[in-house]
Structures are given as structure tokens and as C-alpha cells.
Write a structure and sequence with these properties.
heterodimer, A: 19 helices, about 80% helix, B: mainly alpha
Chain lengths: ~500, ~30
Amino acid sequence: MRTMALVLLLPGVLHAQELHATAVWITFAVYLVVLMVIGILGEIRFSRGYEDFVTAGKSLGAWVTAISAAASAESAWLILGLSGLGYKLGFAAFWVALGGVLGYWFNARFIMLPLKRESDHLGSLTLSDYIEHKLGDRGHLLRVLSALVITVFMTAYVVAQFTGAGKQLEGMGLTSYTTGVWIGAVVIALYVLMGGYAAVSYTDMLQGLLMATVLVIFPVWGMVLAGGPGQVWRIAESLGLTHLWGPHAFALGALGAILAEALGIAFGYPGMPHVVIRYFTVRNEREARRAAWIAIVWSVLAYFGAVSLGIVARVLVETGQMPQPADPEKALAVFTATFLHPVLAGVILAAVTAAIMSTADSQLIYASTTLVNDLYLAFTGKRMASRKLVWTTRSVIALLAAVALAFALMDVRFIYRFVLYAWSALGAAFSPIVIFSLYDRKFNRFGALAALIAGPVFTVLWRDGLGRPGGVYELFVAFPVSLILAWLASRVFPTNKEDAA
Amino acid sequence: MRDLVLFVVFIFLPTLLVILDIYRFMKEGAS
């Protein structure tokens, strides 16, 4: 999500000067080899036909569906940003954790299963496909507009991910920025090119499992180091960190902004194209329900673990066992450098770097599929052999990766503006469409058009036009506005029921 | 003590309810 904004602001979060560079390199290389092996397995199993390549034959099981969706949505913001918030605010940061978990709950309970049923019924391969089929938009306007919104914001995201990879590897003292960008881009592009959507999903599952493992083990271990839960509580209480409304000096208004941000993040989940595509590709309803359960457990462990890690790190600083991080978001890095053996620290640092890199894969495959499936095929009306379509999609993946690589190497600042908007613009544009298309019988293509325009426009207006009043996150405003306009537009311009699918 | 009670009421219990709700949702599909 806002991972890249965070990473771009924090070059060198994971300083590894005190770590053994060789150990870091070896563990990092092992991780990259595993990614490539997954790519090769994907090539063998899922690259014969077009549907296999872009949806893994709609055959994914519960574990890979749940955890790859979660990992694509979260990435490094969760590990670095939320643990930093726990460090800074203490228990008040649990509100953000609750907001995140509620977002997962809403998706699992109300979106996953109906979207799976509808996309199967309509034969949709992408979100733009689904919108057009469901709303009977024969003029292709929604397809074009949604595909454009997705391509612009996701390609910009990929650029930022490559940039993030370069800055991380540079920050860890392993390579120059340029080499880091090349490594990130080439490795990601290779396994996506080989294994397509299946490779993306399985590598994301691996990444999600690593993230959850770190976020469960570290806080528990930190608590043991600090002298047990009772001792942690006493010290945290003396620091004012146990107040649910924030530490002593923390203003209520600022807490309101954090709550708005937590809910704002949650509003984005139902419409995030590269996340909800996982609901299209789950094998059957039984697996979808199991995926809902796995996703909710993952989100509780990861979100609450991240906040707890921040709080425990703060206590360890107070007891003098750990040096004070220069920035709260460096709490994990300092914890790692202080308490872990260099080899193990290498594993953790490499995993975090890989987590930043591999968010790009979901966006790369999704943007490429959108260009080929939703624009090229829909407009040329061409019928291609399935095998040829796989190669066309691969060419677009290579092209987009090359464009993103060029932008990342040139460090084009203009691109980053799109990244700052991305989660909010995509969430405000697509969440109302997904929700209403499933639950509002009167919802039609005019409503969808209103959301597609209002989402990105109000995101930019709130952030740049009005300067983000009160520090309130733009999706908290753009989502309800887009929701209301979509609802109104469907009623002001009603269409015949027969028009819709 | 007051902080602990507030945490349980506003954070822990809602989270527990969410987990139980999704567990029931999963079991519905299995039966």
C-alpha cells in the first residue's frame, strides 16, 4: 500500500553496517534462488494456456489465496511503519491494527465469496472484465477508464518498488543504488515472465509467511528479553504507553487522524484490483471460506504483532538493552542488529528487502493482463491461439518492466506523485463499484462511471487542492464521496434491468 | 488496570468477535 512512500522517505532503514555483509548476501541469494525456482515451477505447470498463465487456471487453494492476497496488500508498511507507530504511540496504535483487521473481515465476509461466484458465472478474468460484464456496458467505456486508472497507478507503483529495492540494497551497504534497482527489476521480471500469475501468488505466499513469522516471534522474544509480560507492562505503563487514547502529550485530534487513517486503509481493501483478483482465482467456495479464515488469523497475528514489536522495542530501549533508534520506523532494524546473530539477521533483512521487491510482481502481472486482456483484445476483437496470448502477455510484462526500470534508474520524481495517490485513488474508484455491484440491484454503469471519476479526482483534490485538512488520510474522504456519488448516479440515471448481465 | 480493561473492551473483544464470526463462516461451508 503506502509502502513505497514510506520506503522512499526512509532510505537505508535497514542499515546493516554492523552485520556481516557476506552472510546477508548468501541468505539474500538463497531467497532469490527460491523465487526463481517458483518461477520455473510456474512455467512448467501454468504456462501452456492463457487462462492458466494469467489466473493459474482458477485453481488456487486456500493458503496461497489468503496469504498472497494479504502480502500483496501489505508489504513493508506493516513491518516498518506499524511497528514504528507502536514504538511511538504504544497501545493507541492497536486502533490501527483493529482497523486493518476489520478491513480483512469485511472482505472475507462480504466480498470474497459473492465476487468468486459472480466472476465464475460471468467468466471474468480481471476486475475490468467483471465490471463490464456485470453492468452490461456494451460501449466499453468502463473497461477503458478502469483499465487506464489501473495501468497508470500500478505502473507507477512498480517504478517505486524498483526504486525501493535499489535504496534498500544500497542502505544495507550491499550494492550501489543502480545495481540494486537492476537486481530487483531483473529477478522480479524473470519469475513473473516464466511463471505468470501462479509464480506471483506462490512467491507472495512465501513472503507473507515470512512476514507473519517475524511479527510473531520477535515480540515474544523481545518480551522474554525484557523480563516477561509483567515487566513489559509495568515499564510501558510508566512511560504512558498503555493509554488507549495515546501517550500523555498526545492530542485527541491526532488520534482522530490515526483512526481515520486506519479506517481509510480498510476502505481500500474491497476494491484493490491486484488483491481481489485472488478471489477470482480461488479453486472453489470451500477453499474461499477456508481462505477467509486463514486471512483473518494472518491479519490478527501480523497487525497485532507489529504493534507489539514496537512497544516491546520501546521498553527494551528504556531498560538500556537496546540503543535508541534514530527514527521509530527503524525499531525493527535496531532490534535485529542488537539481538540477532549476523547470519539470522541476514535472513531477516533479506526477507524484508524481498518483501518490498515482490509487491511489484502482483502489480506487474495485473497491469500487463489489463493491457492485453482489457484493452488490446477487447478493442481489436482479435482471436488468438491461447499459446500466442501467453507470449503476447509476456511481451507486455517485459515492456512494462523495462519502462519501470528506466524510470527507476532515471529517478523520475514526477512518477512518485502517482504512488502517493495510488492506494487511495484505486480504493475510492473500485471499492464502491465492487460493493454496490454485489449488493445494490439498482447499481448501473452510470454509478460505476461516477466512482471511477470521483475516486481519483477527490483523492487529488483532498491531498493537493485542499492540502489534506487536519492531516486526515484522503481515502477517508474520497471513499464516502465516491460511494455517495455512485449511489446517486445509479438512481438519477436508471437503466433497464435487461441491459445488465 | 483501567488501561487493561479499556484494551480488552475496545480492542481485544471486537477482534475476538471478528475471529469467531469468520470461524463460523468457514464451518458453514464445510457442513
